[in-house]
Design brief:
The chain is globular and about 50 Å long. Strand 5, helix 9 and strand 6 form a beta-alpha-beta unit. The longest helix is centred in the first third of the chain and has 24 residues. Strands 1, 2, 3, 4, 5 and 6 form a six-stranded parallel beta sheet that branches. A three-stranded parallel beta sheet has the order 7-8-9. The chain has 16 helices and nine strands. The protein has 409 residues and is α/β, with parallel strands linked by helices.
Length: 409
């Protein structure tokens, strides 16, 4: 199933790519070190690209042209070994019909990821356990774990999670931009909690995650949901793409006390590069109105033809030309969140989940080609190769292994 809405959300989140920002110099030595590391991103929204007409993960694309950020050639150039490829479903009505449509969409999106792997076994491999990542990367292939962003498609049947586990899902969130049947969102339009954390059904879902060995993901959920997860989960939890409230007080970010509590339970925060969550930017109402008008016409179940996609891209580029944004967050803003988290909880509890193809990307780090800059910045900040290896994959794999070991308990 192709979704025009997901394409719209990704394009709307990416701001024009003209401004420049200082970023660390990536020397040949640093680049070689980066390529040697096992590098995983815990939140790739790239599966949305897989269903775009005429788009192939095998081909090199240009972020300035079609706004996508991840493909096989760029992963190789940027030294990204893989990560957790998200089954994202937008929040719809909390009704039987809404659940049915979301379930079908999510299963088909999971199959799109599996089909990507099956179509090119020389370059991609499905990973199901923590121990799978290193040998896959050593063989020169890209690591493909599956995750769920927004548990809404499960409806009111938590046993449906087993179907997604069988497809390959090993990490699952609870809510997204709005409250759902499982949990409160940190960004619900009402501005008010619905359950004050996990709902009773959400607590049942957490039990099922623990039983299966699926890592609970608190990103997008409210602070009260995080409190519930820390209190109730029998295994460590993860924030697959989040930031720090101490740097910018956005509801999507978490405060230092929650960071410390997360670390105390063995969890990890994976730092995102979604500019809206990194710092405040100057309002640009003309641009926002133009984008709203462009993407307001799209429906999630719309079939996007190659011609329609080309038309949308042309209109989006025209908006960038007419209403450029000169106040985009930068690589330094991203690193401010990462370095703060490292200061608070140390290199055993921080990783990378930049939200590529889902709105991530900042001036100075526009797509995965720029990932060696993170390694360079961490080296400049005094972190060792061993520390950086933990940040790039060791920590997320440790949490995954802990959930595997604790399943059924």
């Amino acid at each position: 199933m192709r979704t025009a809405l997901m394409m719209g959300a990704a394009l709307m989140a990416l701001l024009p790519l003209t401004a420049q920002a200082e970023a660390p110099v990536v020397t040949k030595q640093v680049y070689q070190l980066h390529q040697k590391l096992l590098t995983l991103d815990s939140h790739l929204d790239t599966p949305a690209s897989l269903d775009l007409p005429g788009w192939s993960i095998e081909d090199g694309h240009e972020v300035h042209g079609d706004y996508t950020q991840v493909d096989l050639p760029r992963m190789k150039k940027g030294g990204l070994d893989g990560g957790f490829w998200a089954i994202y479903t937008g929040q719809g009505p909390v009704t039987i019909e809404g659940f049915r449509k979301a379930r079908d969409f999510a299963i088909l999106r999971g199959l799109s990821i599996r089909n990507m792997v099956a179509a090119d076994p020389a370059n991609f491999a499905l990973a199901l356990e923590a121990k799978d990542a290193a040998p896959i990367a050593a063989a020169g292939k890209r690591v493909v774990y599956l995750s769920i962003e927004n548990a809404y498609p499960l409806g009111e049947d938590v046993t449906l999670l087993k179907t997604f586990y069988d497809i390959g899902v090993r990490v699952s969130g609870f809510a997204h931009f709005a409250h759902n049947q499982f949990a409160d969102s940190s960004t619900d339009p009402s501005g008010k909690p619905r359950f004050g954390g996990l709902s009773p059904l959400g607590k049942e879902l957490l039990k099922e995650m623990n039983r299966l060995g699926i890592v609970p993901d608190a990103s997008h959920s409210s602070d009260q949901v995080l409190d519930d997860l820390l209190a109730l989960s029998t295994t460590p939890i993860i924030l697959t793409h989040s930031g720090c409230k101490a740097i910018y007080g956005h509801p999507r970010n978490i405060d230092d006390d929650h960071l410390k509590a997360l670390a105390a339970k063995g969890g990890v925060i994976q730092m995102n590069a979604y500019g809206t969550y990194l710092r405040a930017s100057k309002p640009n109402p003309q641009r926002q109105e133009a984008l709203k008008a462009l993407f307001g016409q799209l429906r999630e179940d719309a079939k996007l033809s190659p011609e329609k996609r080309a038309e949308l891209l042309a209109k989006r580029q025209e908006i960038d030309r007419l209403y450029p944004d000169t106040d985009r967050p930068t690589f330094d803003d991203f690193m401010a969140h990462m370095l703060h988290a490292l200061k608070v909880v140390g290199p055993d509890h921080v990783g990378v989940g930049a939200d590529w193809d889902g709105g991530g990307g900042v001036v100075g780090m526009e797509d995965v080609v720029d990932l060696p800059k993170i390694t360079a910045a961490l080296l400049k900040a005094g972190y060792s190769e061993a520390d950086i290896q933990k940040i790039w994959s060791g920590n997320v794999l440790r949490v995954l292994a802990a959930n595997e070991a604790g399943k059924g308990k």
